[in-house]
């Protein structure tokens, strides 16, 4: 039913824990595909040891480095199941994660993908959102399109239909959720289905990310709104832009006050 996908590059400190978390899942109908992107440390040896112990693990090593999103697409190309579920090589799945995600997607066969959410006071989980609802709730409530790949499960047919990850550095996941979200309904799951690790070697913690994040997110928004199949009309787009301008102004004022007060 599910192809669990892990891509790795120099993750010898974390990859073992990630693999063990997948193998400990209460849901067992899965294949586990791991694709290493030319690691230079002991990552490959660690993965090979686990692959010998569990036949569900299918391990591949790239001949050349493809980068983050290129390798994610490569891993998806090996997938043979109905759904694909990414778990990064430094993160952990909780044991109930696959069970919750698969049951929810099967309940809503029209959905193209699902995202683990933050707490909601408006509706119980799981919930199905049509494209317009998913876009509006993202901007005005939950920001669910900012979720990392570990929070998602994707119907393989939907992933292939939109062409997978575009390869946009730092924003490829958000950009993919926007593209899926304009074409397919979204299922939202409860929170706390996986654990995301934060450490200095992640690109999201790099100086490049901190300097370029706002600029990159702006480009994602512009592309989403410019697409002919964007589910929002002009009035709704303007509502979003006004809200974002207010947030930007508040942020600018806060930064200025902090600089002059020293707080």
TrEMBL record:
The keyword Transmembrane helix does not apply. One of its GO terms (molecular function) is hexosyltransferase activity. Residues 3-162 form the Glycosyltransferase 2-like domain. Gene3D superfamilies: Spore Coat Polysaccharide Biosynthesis Protein SpsA, Chain A (3.90.550.10). CDD domains: Glyco_tranf_GTA_type. Coiled coil: none annotated. Pfam families: Glycos_transf_2 (PF00535). Keywords: Transferase. It comes from the Bacteria. This is Glycosyltransferase family 2 protein.
